[in-house]
Amino acid sequence: MAELKIDAVVFDVLGALVDEPAGLRAGIRALTPSPDAAGTERLLLLWQRHIEREQRRVLDGDRPYVPGDLLDREAAGLVAEAAGVGDPAAVEALARSARRLPPWPDTVAGLARIAGRFPLIGLSNASRTALLGLNAHAGLRWHQALSAEDARTYKPDPAVYRLAVTVAGVPPERLLMVAAHAWDLRGAQALGLRTAYVARPVGDPPTPSDRFDLYTEGLADLAGQLGVR
Predict the structure, then answer these.
(1) Is the pTM of this model over 0.85?
(2) β-bridge mates for residue 9, sequence order
(3) CA torsion 74→130→200→198, rounded to 10°?
(4) What is the pLDDT of residue 34?
(5) What is d(CA 79, CA 75) in angstroms, rounded to the nearest whole number?
(6) Is residue 195 left, alpha or beta, with left meaning phi > 0 and alpha meaning psi from -120 to 50?
(7) What pLDDT score does 1 carry?
């Protein structure tokens, strides 16, 4: 893609680089004795729907901004209540499972490869504290990690993507946003960033009407399309 001239690569974290559902499932299994697969998925869906709904309420102005840590604790409380667990320490441990998410098999090597050519910026809806834990647990390599907490809102609000533009100090079109969620890429695209979709089992696939700059099967494929050896 010689015509794709970029100065830095911006990565979403949850979904693109770490397997969020797998980490949350592990936390749910640790919360309650031997839940069956269907029960685990039901509790996982309860967590995911709460986070999605409350972030949307913040974006719509129906709720004042609260950091992702608080939303995780709320979600953990709902899951624990549904599982019949009332121990506050167990609820807190479940909330912290959102910081212990496993990387995809190609994540660590792919980031290291791309970092040899481009500055890497992590841009996540996770809080600053959670992002620190995520980076350490999954072994993520960054030159800069940015949290939506710094904009006091959540993606796809343009203010979050603007954080990366400000830090990079280049025009938006010189940044490449990489994500597994098409909605995230649309948000970046609206601010003028270039976009790369990376296919993951838990992502939000593009629709036929989406027009992203790159479509990749993983980070090795992304590196190849960027001309990184």
Answers:
(1) yes
(2) 120, 176
(3) 130
(4) 67
(5) 6
(6) beta
(7) 41
Question: Rounded to whole angstroms, what are the CA distances from 11 to 14, 89, 123?
Answer: 9, 33, 6
196, β-bridge pairs: 178, 214
Max CA separation in the chain (angstroms): 57
Q: What's the pLDDT tens digit per position in 17-55?
A: 999 999 999 999 999 876 788 999 999 999 999 999 999
Give me the pLDDT at residue 212, please.
98
| Cα radius of gyration rounded to whole Å, the chain | 18
**Positions in the chain whose pLDDT score sits under 50:** 1-2
Task: Render the burial of 177-209: b for 16+ CB within 10 Å, e for the rest.
Answer: bbbbbbebbbbbbebebbbbbbebebbbebeee
Can you tell me which residue has the tokens 């509790």? 43
Question: What's the pLDDT at 140?
Answer: 95
Token pair for 90: 């167990």
List the strands of the sheet with 175-179, edge to edge: 144-147, 120-124, 8-11, 175-179, 194-198, 214-216
